[in-house]
Amino acid sequence: MILTFPEVISADEQRAILKEIAAAEFVDGRETASPLLATIKNNQQVRRGSIPLQRIADIVLGALRRSPAFLNAVYPKQLHSMLVSRYREGMEYGAHVDQALMGDTAVWRTDLSLTLFLNEPDAYEGGELALEYGSGETRVKLPARSLVCYPTGQLHRVTAVTRGERLVVVGWIQSYVRDNAAREVLCDLGKAMESLRGREDLRAAHDLINKTHANLMRRWAEP
Predict the structure, then answer these.
(1) Cα-based angle 207, 211, 216 (whole degrees, multiple of 5)
(2) Statement to judge: residues 25 and 79 lie in one domain
(3) Among the three residues 155, 175, 195, which one is the final residue of a domain in this structure?
């Protein structure tokens, strides 16, 4: 399931992130790629472990933690391994699947990948996030401050930028619910509960859905 969330960060937060990026040191994106992926990865990244990257991660994490739509769809246990990626003219990232485990001192499973867009779609040509399926691919290019989240096991690529510059924050999530289908069921039940909230004539239906949601969380969640 591909999930999109508009206006995840505020305009002020976007400006703060862009200010940090303007002062940051960029390095070759292949520094964080395996030898095989290094042959198809052509981008730049803010240096890992740098103060600007930590400040950016703090802003993004804070925004995600106050988003009920994100929390109720993703059930994040850990948001980790954030990067800021820059694609300039001629840069792209070939089809690949991200690592199943990430981290150094602490290792986290990668259930979901996220991309937060920092500039508007008309600021660059190309640079779509292309997610592959058996019948083709879906291309995603969202407005600034919007986020797309998708299963990490999905084969995906970033198409070549032919004009301008693509700026994004990328990161990974270990969810309390690792199964994609289970998360979708819980998300749908949550939306159904929300639509019934406050309807006294439908209180019994709301309570049954709430009971089912809670019991499925007990069955599927991994604390």
Answers:
(1) 150
(2) yes
(3) 175
Which residues share a beta bridge with 161?
126
HSE at residue 205, side-chain half, CA atoms within 13 A, is: 13
- Give the span between the Cα atoms of 220 and 215, in whole angstroms: 9
Domain with residue 61: its CATH number is 2.60.120.620
Q: Is 67 in contact with 8 (CB distance < 8 Å)?
A: yes
> What pLDDT, in 10s, does the model give residues 161-219?
999 999 999 999 999 999 999 999 999 999 999 999 889 999 999 999 999 999 999 99
Helix (H, G, I), strand (E, B) or coil at 82: strand
Nearest to 126 by CA among 91, 81, 159: 159
- Residues 101 and 141 both lie in one domain: yes
Q: What is the pTM of this model?
A: 0.94
